[in-house]
Automatic annotation (TrEMBL):
Any one Gene Ontology BP term: fatty acid beta-oxidation
A single Gene Ontology CC term: peroxisome
Domain of life (superkingdom): Eukaryota
Gene3D superfamilies according to UniProt: 2-enoyl-CoA Hydratase, Chain A, domain 1
Pfam families given in the database record: ECH_1 (PF00378)
Species of origin: Mortierella alpina
GO MF, one example: delta(3)-delta(2)-enoyl-CoA isomerase activity
CDD domains registered for this protein in UniProt: crotonase-like (cd06558)
Protein name, per record: Uncharacterized protein
Amino acid sequence: MSPTTDAKYFPSASEQLLSITREGPLFILTMLDNDNRFTTEFCAAICDALDHVQSVVDAEELQEAALISRGASEKFYSNGLHIEKAFSVPGFTEEIFMPMLNKILLFPLPTVACVNGHAFAGGMLMAMAHDYRVMRSDRGFMCMNEIDLPSPLPTGMSALLRFKLPHHIYRSVVLEAKRYSAKEALAGHIVDAIPDKEGIEPAFELAKAIATKIAHKAKAGSIVGMIKEDMYPEASHFLTVGQSKL
């Protein structure tokens, strides 16, 4: 695989919330905060990074490309919404966070979430918005803890989980707030693969192997996103219309 390119930071080099690097056909989105909680600025940075990746793919007319997201820390992929900052912004969930999830869900490249640590609530939702998920084998849980807060689960978020998960797993995720270890997540079809070895690097290498294997599908261009929209019509719809009910 080609050497890693220099990082491009978002929202800027002076305010580094996340970075994009390239390894051959792979674009690596690395979230750089300790727990990667979602705020207005963090969601905007993710969307800007995705737009940057798409602009590069289009400009270079790449026939092979895929996106991997990961956290930089040992502990968290993402710890969900930054409650104080998020809820201080009117309409944050419906107008900022869920549209970001939809952007990932329909992104016109193959996508792989490398879950390097805990993925709680909004962090689990971000991982679930990807096409594939790899989780490190030795550390971290995936969990939706809204029922324990307690907090309602907006229709768009619920639809995303419902489309992605087997029903009995979906039920335990949203009604029991079950914390899934890597092995449990694999058995429950929450994640697609876990490495045999412990640590972040084996998980990242496995994520890269999966992404590399499917990167050639990017040659379909915008059709990739159109097919994803047909795969998840209800989830995509409710992620973009907010609190509308079934």
